[in-house]
TrEMBL record:
Official protein name in the record: Phosphoglucomutase-like 5
Domain Alpha-D-phosphohexomutase alpha/beta/alpha: 10-75, 128-218, 237-298
Organism expressing this protein natively: Merops nubicus (Northern carmine bee-eater)
Domain of life of the source: Eukaryota
GO molecular function: phosphoglucomutase activity
Amino acid sequence: IGRLVIGQHGILSTPAVSCIIRKIKAAGGIILTASHSPGGPGGYFGVKFEVANGGPASDLASDKIYEISKTLEEYAICPDLRVDLSRLGRQEFDLENKFKPFRVEIVDSVDIYLGLLRNIFDFNVIRSLLTGPNQIKIRIDAMNGVMGPYVRRILCDELGAPANSAINCVPLEDFGGQPPDPNLTYATALLEAMRSGEYGFGAAFDADGDRYMILGQNGFFVNASDSLAIIAANLSCIPYFCQMGVRGFGRSMPTSTALDKVAKVMKVPLYETPAGWRYFCSLMDSGRCSLCGEESFGTG
């Protein structure tokens, strides 16, 4: 590998990694995250490998990586290599290998991901919902994971939600001592705020930003299966789907049949997959799936 692209401050959401891989036509991407598992010194140090389509490695790719790992005899490290993760732009190094120079590029991942979202959603309509005369008050909990910078930049700066709409937006190594799992057990600060009735919409994100929980007014809980079905039933409100059409829906096996009912009314094919995001990727790559989701609030 002769070139690395890294998010500023080392912070990237999993969807942003996918976005950047596709944008720059990278060979793949590595995400260091415990994902669903408890992270930290007493937990797990997770490694996700994303392939060139921006999705997780297939069983075939994972098996090949494993086989190669059994043949490794040595590795080299560069203890003196220092990369300034806060400085945007390209940095070059001489590692005395075949890549001269070895390039490291620090990018604003929030800005790149924001550009993608502008091509999917109607920002003017959302902005009017958050700032207009009939504005809805929202409450978004980043749970001290990587989503904080995205929530602040996109929902507050770009779409006009008040700054106090977003809470726990500073990424912390220990996530503030609370597991960054968006559910009723751990997103208690959001749940209490929503129960007050002051906010019309609430959401919490997990540590690496690929799962969410939605709460309605007075703390009304929208489960993962229903939130997926609601999005599917309202795809005509999203410009991307108006332009591209809807080819099919996908859901994981443990998810309820709420999406099936929507698919039947819309006359759209529905696919049930085993648990695991890579199965959705196969559907997407084959052109058969436009919207998919799993039992733990992952949606794409």
